[in-house]
Amino acid sequence: MADTKRPESAVERIQRRVQEKAERRAAVRVAGERAADAPQQTGASSATSVRTEQREAARPAPSVPSEKELPGVHAEKPTDIPARGWLQIVRRAWAENSADNMPIIGAGVAFFAFLAVFPALIATISIYGLVASPAQVTSQIESLSDQLPESAQSLLTDQLTSITQNSGGALTFSLIISILAALWSASGGTGNLITAVNLAYDEVETRGFVKRKAIALGLTIGAIVFVLITFALIAVVPVVLDALPLGIVGTILAQVLRWVLLLGVVAGSLAVLYRLAPDRDAPKMRWVSLGSVVVTVIWAVVSLLFSIYVDNFGSYDKTYGAIAGVIVLMLWLYLTCYLVLLGAEINSETEHQTAVDTTEGDPVPMGTRDATMADELPDPPVPTKESKQHA
Fold this sequence. Notes:
Strand content: under 5%
Oligomer: single chain
Radius of gyration: 24 Å
Helix content: over 70%
Largest sheet: none
Order of helices and strands: HHHHHHHHHHHHHH
Distance between the termini: 23 Å
Number of helices: 14
Shape: globular
Structural class: mainly alpha
């Protein structure tokens, strides 16, 4: 008889994961309180706590496949995973990318990122304007925007020039209010990115509004720091290098080092995002850093090719007219967001490849790590047509 069991819907899968996460956290709290011989303060009744413990005890221990079935299953770090294991990771990541509708989600995140770009830049320029004159800021903005396609460059330059002309050089109460308002508005885009990264890690959001907003604001401030560092590397460092007697070889090496540092800053920022955004026990840095580096290199190449295409082969000016700059900027943001989320899928499947505890702190058994990808092993290791239908 054919299997007529209805595949689990996305809503049912999220509800199941919410319930499982709540049960795991309740069990951890109960175990900790009993170990300390302290009275229960979980807010749950004794009967509920007992049922939770019974479900946790009845859960079968996960069977660990062999290295032949799952290469890298005992890997202590990503570089311990052999090539065959990475092939499985990439295939699963690509399948999950489609199953999670990341192309569509990436477009949504890019839209909210576009809405957040200018509030974030207002906050950045307002802070930077405290130590630099409007003329200096304008000049450095032009140097920074040279790396973008011409249409997007014109849009950003016009908007940011307007911002710098209206900004003052003193820290006033009204400036503080405008900076805080811009940060709050920009953090909305960061919050949507957090939601998307949660989906990539197969996690459900259970953090309260205050904690989630605090993380979003923290990541937004981190993004502003990233932009300021980028300002320094792209616009300030070349002026310093021109003033130094380095010679031809020294100048070339300094320029290479400058771009390596810039890509390193991008990779480090992505690693922080992948570590803090998901609602789970934080992974160790080595389990988010490698994927961040790979995605950064791909992003740099894609951005360069996109810029060349728009400037030389695209017809956005003829097609979209006055809003061509907006369209080009949104397309670039879409490519960026899509690659960031694809990097999250790769990182999550990398953790999924090993049975070793990938979370911070002392190692704990699989199933008690409060992280979906660290608590489970892929079944099957390579996605099949049937597994894609049930995903």
